[in-house]
Every structure is written in structure tokens, then in C-alpha cells.
Amino acid sequence: EGPPLPPPPPPPRAAAAEAEEEGGGEGGRRVRGKEKHGLQHEAMLEVLRALPPGSMLGSGFVYVELGAGKGGLSAAIGQAAPGAAFVLLDWAKPVAAHDAVLRERHSTIRYKIDLRHLWLRGVPGLWGGGRQGAEGGAEGGAE
């Protein structure tokens, strides 16, 4: 039993929420495309930064981006977490993806695979022995 627990602290004030308050709603300026994704990535990073040090953001972690698209979220996390590794998963590799920059700075692998065929135990980039920095295919991560 004991005394009741205090309420949880409010979530971090994310950039996306601030943009919405500053006119992103009805009658205000609409946020689109790259700007929208950039705001979303910054908001997610703000949440990761608010966690206890070493719990989710830092070197030694392997981040898996499902539905990676151009890999913008991984690129944003990569700026905040030097030494991290990335596995990007998507059914197509888009034009102008962030892969080249990620490969220059981090151990990065991309698998072109439909997520319904994904078996995470079969992804070498997560368990070692993978082709780091290589363009992957469904053969490496599907069963």
C-alpha cells in the first residue's frame, strides 16, 4: 500500500508540438515534407536525450529503423550518438537517401525487404558477422 505515487513529469516540450502551437493548426502555416520530418526527428531525439544517460542514446547501440525510407531518423540519431550502428529496413531504397553519410560515420547496413517477411534473428547487422556498410537484400534478413 503506502502513499500514492506522485504524477509522472510532463513529457519534454517537443519541437513538433511547439510548431503546432505557433500556427501549424487550423488557419496557420502548414508544415510539410522535409521540414515536418525534421521536426519529428528532433522531437524523438529530445525524448531520447531526456532518458537516463546510457539508456537509449550513445555509442555501442545498434538502432533499427523500420520503414526507414531515406534514413533521416537514423541520420539524426547518428549526429547525437557517435559510434552507434544502424540497420535500415524498408521495401525500397529511395533516391537521395542518407546512406552514404551514415556509412562514412557509422557502421550501417540497409536491407531492402518487406517488413512482413522480416525475421530479426536473421539480420546479421544486429548479431555480428554482417556485411557492415554493404547494401543488403532480402536474402540477409528474411526467412
Describe this structure in words.
- By secondary structure, the protein is α/β, with parallel strands linked by helices.
- It is built from six helices and three strands.
- The protein has helices at 15-24, 33-50, 72-80, 99-105, 124-127, 138-141, and strands at 62-66, 85-90, 107-112.
- A three-stranded parallel β-sheet has the order 1-2-3.
- Helix 1 (15-24) crosses helix 2.
- The chain starts with 14 loop residues before the first helix and ends with a helix.
- Mean pLDDT is 74; it is low at 21-27 and 129-143.
Task: Give the SSE map.
Elements lengths: L14 H10 L8 H18 L11 E5 L5 H9 L4 E6 L8 H7 L1 E6 L11 H4 L10 H4 L2
Parallel strand pairs: 1-2, 2-3
Largest sheet: 3 strands, parallel
Give, in order, the helices and strands: HHEHEHEHH
Apparent shape: globular
Structural class: alpha/beta
Q: Quick check: average pLDDT?
A: 74
Helix content: 25-40%
Unreliable spans are 21-27, 129-143
> DSSP strand (E) fraction?
5-15%
Cα radius of gyration in angstroms: 18 Å
What's the gist of this structure?
This protein is an alpha/beta fold. The protein is built from 6 helices and 3 strands.
Task: Supply database-style keywords.
143 residues; disordered C terminus; single chain; 36% helix; 3-stranded parallel beta sheet; 6 helices; alpha/beta
